[in-house]
Design a protein that fits this description.
The protein has two domains: 70 residues, no CATH class; 67 residues, no CATH class. Helix 6 packs antiparallel against helix 7, helix 6 packs parallel to helix 8 and helix 10 packs parallel to helix 12. With 170 residues, the protein is mostly helical. The protein is built from 13 helices and no strands.
Amino acid sequence: MMKLLEQSAEEVKQTLGYKLNNGFARLKDEDEACTKPKWAYFFARYVKGADIEKCQEAACKDPYCAYEFALWIKDANIEKCEEAACKYPKLAYYFVLYIEGSNIEKCQEAACKDPWCAYEFARDVKGADIKRCEEAACKDLRWGYRFAMDIKGANIENCRKACKGSKYEF
């Protein structure tokens, strides 16, 4: 019975996903890996000798994969990954927080499209433009209130005006 099982296993074609997950991927699988962003990222991360530029091109078609690529791949082009990751405010915030060499202004522009991200950006990123973050955070009453309470350098009066007439009024 075991012999039959072993023979069957040899006949089953291994998918690239299986190969990547189990350490069987080889350089000859690179073209197939670059057909999907996630596979391209994993290929570059786990297969020695992978063409980083080729894999990055494919990985940067997905913002999250671009962020992961910049975070974990040694020779990644940070600007290219940043361009893709900054399509989502939360990824822009994480990008500037965790990836050395990121562009604070560019990431802040993207992060400030979401009030929560603007608040977090002002709180956690040294060199953030507090006034710009405040404008974005105050578009949501809850984050405008938190901004006034937590962020050093916040214009309390602007935040107070934004929260006026709501349960967050102070």
